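Lecture notes, part 5. Sequence design as translation. It can be helpful to think of inverse folding as translation between two languages: the language of shapes and the language of residues. The source text, in structure tokens, appears below.
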């Protein structure tokens, strides 16, 4: 039996499942999962769950788990959800089985942790300021406005923030302009700023169980966040790319520092230098895997099936 935690919508998960010829259970973010029983009172332990599409699933003989987003959801409120999470973790996480990836709630780092570790390992990072003070922001802006300017991105992995009136989307990186600065209060919510790097090309790196699969993303349109142009086929080109061995070694040390054996990393290449941006423990895979013909879905399915 293979257990897969996943986001509700992820075509790469579907591709991996197509290669599985063994029993599996997929737990999506919205799937209602009920723990029928956990019996540890005799020599034959038993753990049985039921979800929206399968009944009485015996997980005692589970041999591998893939965490790619998602969570266990009882459908009966926060308290029972938490109970299910704790009980499921107590069973799954202590088992000596193959585990690929980590649950988002177990990803005990933030953007700054990862950046500082990347810097310690010798990777270049853009000049960075975290502040809620307009004067310090203005000084930072003045320093880099004569170059390529500065950008802002979210600190947490949460995409949205809401108040009584609006829901705010923090998903995209954006350019700090004089107009934005003029409207900024003297004191504002702590925020993340970086010098803007105009890349020769960007690099998405998929890391899986000690192997790297990288792609160079060439963009033919001026944009602060390349995710805004992926639907415009003529505005970008994605091709296989081999990172220098030293960069792969430094990246692997960052992944291992945070006990990650699966995820993606974003880098930029500019004027002969590689700049590290961030790591995502459940990064999008298909938009790199498919154009580069890496066939990662087959390789991952083999790890899950073989239990190693």
């Amino acid at each position: 039996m293979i257990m897969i935690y996943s986001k509700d919508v992820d075509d790469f998960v579907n591709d991996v499942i197509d290669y599985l010829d063994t029993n599996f259970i997929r737990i999506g973010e919205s799937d209602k999962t009920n723990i029928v029983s956990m019996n540890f009172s005799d020599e034959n332990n038993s753990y049985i769950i039921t979800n929206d599409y399968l009944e009485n699933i015996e997980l005692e003989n589970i041999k591998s788990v893939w965490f790619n987003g998602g969570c266990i959801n009882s459908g009966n409120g926060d308290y029972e959800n938490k109970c299910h999470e704790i009980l499921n973790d107590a069973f799954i996480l202590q088992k000596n089985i193959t585990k690929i990836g980590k649950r988002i709630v177990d990803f005990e780092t933030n953007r700054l942790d990862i950046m500082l570790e990347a810097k310690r390992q010798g990777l270049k990072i853009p000049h960075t300021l975290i502040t809620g003070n307009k004067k310090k922001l203005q000084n930072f802006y003045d320093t880099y406005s004569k170059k390529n300017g500065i950008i802002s991105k979210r600190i947490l992995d949460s995409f949205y923030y809401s108040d009584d009136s609006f829901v705010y989307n923090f998903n995209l990186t954006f350019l700090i302009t004089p107009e934005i600065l003029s409207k900024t209060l003297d004191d504002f919510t702590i925020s993340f700023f970086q010098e803007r790097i105009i890349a020769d090309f960007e690099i998405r790196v998929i890391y899986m169980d000690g192997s790297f699969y990288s792609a160079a993303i060439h963009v033919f349109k001026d944009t602060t966040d390349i995710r805004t142009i992926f639907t415009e086929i003529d505005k970008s080109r994605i091709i296989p790319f081999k990172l220098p061995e030293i960069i792969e070694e430094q990246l692997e040390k960052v992944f291992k520092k945070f006990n990650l054996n699966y995820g993606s990393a974003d880098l930029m290449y500019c004027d002969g230098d590689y700049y590290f941006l961030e790591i995502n423990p459940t990064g999008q895979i298909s938009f790199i895997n498919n154009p580069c013909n890496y066939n990662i879905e087959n390789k991952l399915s083999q790890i899950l099936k073989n239990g190693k």
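The translated text above is only one of many valid answers, since several sequences can fold into similar shapes. The chain is about 25% helix and 30% strand.
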